[in-house]
Amino acid sequence: MVKDEFIAKETSKLLLQINAIKLNPKNPFTWASGWKSPIYCDNRTILSYPKVRDLICEYLSSQIEENFSNFDVIAGVATGAIGIGMLVANKLNKPFIYVRSGRKKHGRKNSVEGYFQKNQRVIVIEDLISTGKSSLEACDSLIEENLNVQGLVSIFNYNFDISKANFESKRINYYSLCSYNFLIEYAAQQNYISSKEIDELKKWRSDPENWNK
Which end of the chain is more exposed for a tag (fewer CB within 10 A), N or C? Predict the structure, then answer.
């Protein structure tokens, strides 16, 4: 869910400017899931641009403060949201922990790293949401550690119907700085893409699993 149109447009602009979002309908990317995609998002690029990361950190922090009244800890999802999550925690003056993609196989076998106490209220930071599967697995890891997940905030959201259904089934509130629709609208306005490419991007969005087969 995107709640602030100004932040959505500004975030779209920043992601395109630093090439964190790549649009290429003619030569689509292949995701880990096997889906062919005309868009690729790598928000880790944000960390390499001090002014951009400061703005994204500010936007994430403002969305957290606006939408969540009480929380104790910020948790970043590995690996894409560890860096930006730590910056957000620093800005909000909150402790920071991070969630592994899988439980560590040696030592203490942690799935969550950092110091925390049972029943603390946690806000999860994610770099992007596609199907929502990995984001919700991170939330499950926190819940298994007896932490109270208040909600999740991401930088970007593809707004797939399946992600909405997945979050609703877990009853976890989630917000995003910008979404696919805002991004494509801004890209079209600024001539990053042609009208023909816009049509392809819309087709992909309606059926990503079967697009370009």
Answer: C
pLDDT the model gives residue 73: 98
- The whole-number average pLDDT for the span 111-131 is 96
Rounded Cα gap, residues 181 and 75, in angstroms: 27
Rounded alpha-carbon distances, angstroms, from residue 204 to 3, 24, 45, 46, 72: 24, 12, 24, 25, 39
Dist CA 197 CA 6 (whole Å): 25
152 has pLDDT over 60: yes
Q: What is the C-alpha separation between 53 and 211, in angstroms, rounded? A: 33
pTM for the structure as a whole? 0.93
Task: Report which of 203, 199, 197, 161 is spatially closest to residue 179, judged by C-alpha positions.
Answer: 161
Domains along the chain with CATH numbers: 5-206 (3.40.50.2020)
